Amino acid sequence: MPRALTPTPTHGPTLRLIGMVAALALAGGTQAQQGGATKPAPGAFERAKEASAAPPMLSSPLPAGTGTAVPSGSGAGYHSPNSPIAPLPQRNDVVPWSVLTDLTKKTTKDGILPVFNEAQKGMDKTVQRIQGFMVPLDAKPTQTHFLLTSVPLTCSFCTPGGPESMVEVKAKTPVRYSLEPVVVEGKFTVLTNDQYGLYYRVVEAVPVK
Hints:
Blueprint: H1 12-33, H2 44-52, E1 78-79, H3 97-100, E2 104-108, E3 111-115, H4 118-123, E4 126-136, E5 142-149, E6 158-159, E7 166-176, E8 182-190, E9 200-208
Parallel strand pairs: 7-9
Antiparallel strand pairs: 1-6, 2-3, 4-5, 4-8, 5-7, 8-9
């Protein structure tokens, strides 16, 4: 995996988490496009060995040579109309991402923390439905711990948003990984100071058609 750019203290854990799963997804997609295993490039084994000698710092999937001045994401992200992946369909039975991303932030000695509005506070500890693109956290075909995001992280035409554009899901019933949008229902929680920099979590979630 590539060495990371130095992330901001605020969203560093979130970016490392997202970067890891996005890198795995992109790597899997590249291998699939090439028809499976390919002959490694000269010196690849040595470079991999050197890279594993020190723990890698992972960051958000940014193009090579971007530099360290790129700010961490914010808002809902951007899903380009040129993307081959269709955007989330309109549904009236899910919490809109516009509601989740409509917040302000404050700077403290611990970093930048979310300031939830009354609507978001009102959803805390209630049962809600969330729709998004699944970001798996392991290689299993079914997931019990994953993220849902407002835009697909594997889409090169899309710009990922900030922590407000993702929801951590801990499922009671395993959910099959899919490139198509996923809807889950469970107990919704707002996170005022999460150690991974996340803002929202759904627990005891079950998949919904």
